[in-house]
UniProtKB/TrEMBL annotation, chains A, B:
Protein name: Gamma-glutamyl phosphate reductase
Designated gene of the protein: proA
InterPro entries (UniProt xref): Ald_DH/histidinol_DH (IPR016161), Ald_DH_C (IPR016163), Ald_DH_N (IPR016162), Aldehyde_DH_dom (IPR015590), G-glutamylP_reductase_CS (IPR020593), Glu-5-SA_DH (IPR012134), GPR_dom (IPR000965)
Species whose genome carries this gene: Pontixanthobacter rizhaonensis
Residue ranges constituting the Aldehyde dehydrogenase domain according to the UniProt record: 16-278
EC number: 1.2.1.41
Length: 424, 424
């Protein structure tokens, strides 16, 4: 009987070993030029295309297992790859390769009276850990973003996608290695033991930042247990406030789009606040109801349409991710701001108004990662923000907030150029 | 018998209550203008000056207790206030008031093809926790920096300074409140129970960032136990590398200043790496030895001067904070970089060289918060970096690195100005 060596080692020691090798690989990766990193990612994309056969074959193993295990049709669809989807994955890697390299960018420069020439220069963060579920495209997407910014990465995918992830990872790394990137810069944790996740979360000093990509259960667990900094958002309880001075047509379009364009994304509106002085409330709500949206309102909202059901206290703190919206009628901007301060998950909140002073007060007061005037909250997205990609949206208060792409995967160092200064 | 209400409550519930009141107070604080916050801090400084009598009286209680308890003369000196030192504290608060307000600064702006006008705007972090030892000036210094950047703050000083801290805090807040800042924006944790520190470290979501100010034991405990992000550095194992192409006079001056100007600060050099091709090694080391510095060297360094004692393995990882330096002779830049990669605490590392290519390679490769060319590591200081002040130096990899002043006490939000955009 052959025992695979990893079966003799604890998940903790496997993760420790991976992280140490990633740290060692990150130094040569960080030393690569912009062009070298871009070429390596194009090579990884080409290798994914060349490996279409084995990747789809591995994926069919995962699909068979998922079917036998009775996973939902939606989960199986998220898991499934075909040649079109794989081409999409390769294209996304090419797109990341073509983004500008944030490493080496000078954030600011100064020369204090001591004559030292100071500059703050973007550098990679170091070793990142990505913990994700079902969608195998994350293996390539996240790895590409990490490598573009000079970071080594430890990938930990869901067990239901283990064959797909292994095949995608193998192809991706084959491309990187051919371009001079150390293989250890992008590693898939080689055990499905759940204790490996705990070991990653505990690896302060070895892993510099954890990014969970998946459902609320995963994010909640990661945020609760991690000793390593986490970049994530737990809830997207996004508000849209229709101010008394809102253009009625614009208000209706924005409210409808914010809720109904896609109800399952984190930037979807969950609560609609309507000013008591706003003149077209019934029309805005009627349009949502006509489209099949369930509307849960306070007493004053219910009076506007007989189809509106009562909202309970829990509704103001619920991320539905479905065609359901909670609606409250508020008396003025102050009451809207107070509601948002109490219930927002600090993701994206919107005011619709033609009153510039109200807009500025809303922008200044609302304490969320993204605050919008006269636009749909569904724009909360790295691509729409011109970042070219997105590793996720963060609602934490440090490092990076809102959509996070390459810049959020960097930190900075101070470079100091002197001419022999000693300190008096 | 009167029981003080806090004696009936657990340290955890006291900290929880303080943090919730701080969170509530932070919103009105954040809404104050630049001028209002500056005026409030000048009022706090004036109040400190007016309260000179009670503050010095409170301080004498602490000094008496410290003397009875047999504290060292150095600790008692750190604890002691007089009218000059108190004037220094008030002046420092005035100086922070006069620094530019980082809140509201626009980091960058863009307009992607969807026409949304995006800007990233600096905002306060929220509620900060400062945990510090003995020096009562931190009560005013740290509170001033936090308030200047719109943050509420929970202060937890050492028990040996409890009377001084209480008096300084009372005077400081009296000035703030007279200027419209809520009293709860600056709180001193009202219990000396050590469990209160644990409660602060565990208060993820209530406290947004912890800053420890004190000795290595304190920082180590905070970094090990905190669930809240920590801004700090543990060690300052700073290297100076004298390259083969270093100007000999400059190299001698920088090495001497980096070690001997003040040996007890985190930016002091602890290890001197000398290139085997550098021509003035014996002179550089002789100057340190003549000044009473203990030099611990490898075999090649010992051959240069009979006064040099052997360095053990532990010396390369020791922050002496005393007139002691470890010295290693290295063969070229690569060996110096490898030594620094292995032993640096990522605080400040220096190369002395006239070779621009070597300087740039050092700047690019060394992975520390501050990397210097041709200057003394003792310049690692917020004041010397033109930041006007310093809450501390950070060696963590996220949020802020190196000297941290007001900007490091802010985060940002995305402000989005639309004209009715809905997402296709």
């Amino acid at each position: 009987m052959t025992i695979h060596p990893d079966q003799e080692r604890s998940p903790e020691s496997i993760v420790l070993d991976c992280a140490q090798r990633a740290r060692a690989a990150q130094l040569p990766l960080a030393a690569l030029s912009d062009i070298q990193k871009a070429e390596a990612l194009h090579a990884a994309a080409a290798s994914l295309r060349r490996s279409c056969g084995p990747i789809l074959q591995a994926n069919s193993c995962d699909i068979d297992a998922a079917t036998s295990a009775g996973l939902s049709a939606a989960m199986i669809d998220r898991l499934r790859l075909d040649s079109d989807r794989l081409e999409g994955i390769a294209k996304a890697v090419d797109a990341v390769a073509d983004l500008p390299d944030p490493v080496g960018q000078i954030i600011d420069q100064s020369t204090p009276p001591n004559g030292l020439q100071l500059s703050r220069v973007r550098v990679p963060i170091g070793v990142l850990g990505i913990i994700y579920e079902s969608r195998p495209n994350v293996t390539a997407d996240a790895a590409a973003l990490c490598v573009r910014a000079g970071n080594a990465v430890l990938l930990r995918g869901g067990s239901e996608a283990v064959h797909s992830n292994t095949a995608i990872h193998a192809a991706f790394v084959e491309g990187l290695v051919a371009s001079g990137v150390p293989a250890d810069a992008v590693q898939l944790i080689p055990t499905q033991d759940r204790a490996a996740v705990g070991a990653m979360l505990a690896a302060a000093g070895l892993i510099d930042m954890i990014i969970p990509r998946g459902g609320k259960g995963l994010v909640e667990r990661v945020q609760a247990d991690a000793r390593v900094p986490v970049l994530a958002h737990l809830d997207g309880i996004c508000h849209t406030y229709l101010h008394s001075a809102a253009d009625t047509a614009m208000a209706g379009d924005i409210a409808f789009n914010a809720k109904m364009r896609r109800t399952g994304i984190c930037g979807a509106m969950e609560t609609l606040l309507i000013d008591a002085q706003f003149s077209a409330s019934a029309a805005v709500l009627g349009r949502l109801l006509d489209a099949g949206c369930e509307v849960r309102g306070d007493a004053r909202a219910q009076a506007l349409d007989s189809r509106i059901v009562p909202a309970g206290d829990a509704d103001w703190g619920t991320e539905y991710l479905e065609p359901i919206v909670s609606v409250r009628i508020v008396d003025g901007l102050g009451e809207a701001l107070a509601h948002i301060a109490e219930h927002s998950s600090h993701h994206t909140d919107v005011i619709v108004t033609s009153d510039d002073a109200a807009a500025e007060q809303f922008l200044n007061t609302v304490d969320s990662a993204i605050v919008m005037v006269n636009a749909s909250s569904q724009f909360a997205d790295g691509g729409e923000f011109g970042l070219g990609a997105e590793i996720g949206i963060a609602t934490g208060r440090l490092h990076a907030r809102g959509p996070v792409a390459l810049e959020g995967l960097t930190t900075y160092k101070w470079c100091v150029r002197g001419s022999g200064q000693v300190r008096p």
